[in-house]
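pipeline/complex-builder :: batch 7 item 3
reading input block
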Amino acid sequence: ETGVTQTPRHLVMGMTNKKSLKCEQHLGHNAMYWYKQSAKKPLELMFVYNFKEQTENNSVPSRFSPECPNSSHLFLHLHTLQPEDSALYLCASSQVKTSGGEGNTQYFGPGTRLTVL
Amino acid sequence: RKEVEQDPGPFNVPEGATVAFNCTYSNSASQSFFWYRQDCRKEPKLLMSVYSSGNEDGRFTAQLNRASQYISLLIRDSKLSDSATYLCVVNDYKLSFGAGTTVTVRA
């Protein structure tokens, strides 16, 4: 399945490095999301973009910086991370409906497994 | 109280058995819910949507109890391939995820 792709799949970085995670969705959706998943914890929503506009920032530290150049692409820029930031970072997309009815079904990419040394 | 709570398990069951587990949610106004499954080191994938009283899809049945604020997932005739972590998700304009219930089906 290639609806939502993420690169790289694995990343090891030092605390002083700068890196970026990339996500691309091929589903024609209008919303994209970044989640963090740590071991044995629920997925934590980090950022939401609707129609390329950031609509939610869940108190995420500034060392994480999202970028959404268009409705198909989403980046997460990383710098001066901490070891506790090591986790699986998942991108998702959905078609947000302005009217009521069906829920907000999100489709996930395979994730980037990040290790901060 | 957490927004979404699940019994982490693990539920260890033999092939062919029936397994069921619940998920409780805190917001009584929540209208729609999902079950996602997540295999080890993979991304979550949508299993079922739950909009009204429940939903059935083959061997999987999801039920919603609004009065007690929980949804359940029942798996009949378990297969080895059903082994996964099942995530309960509540849709309140954004998705809130439970930590997941792990199911292991043994031969």
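note: Chain A has a mean pLDDT of 89.
queue -> next item
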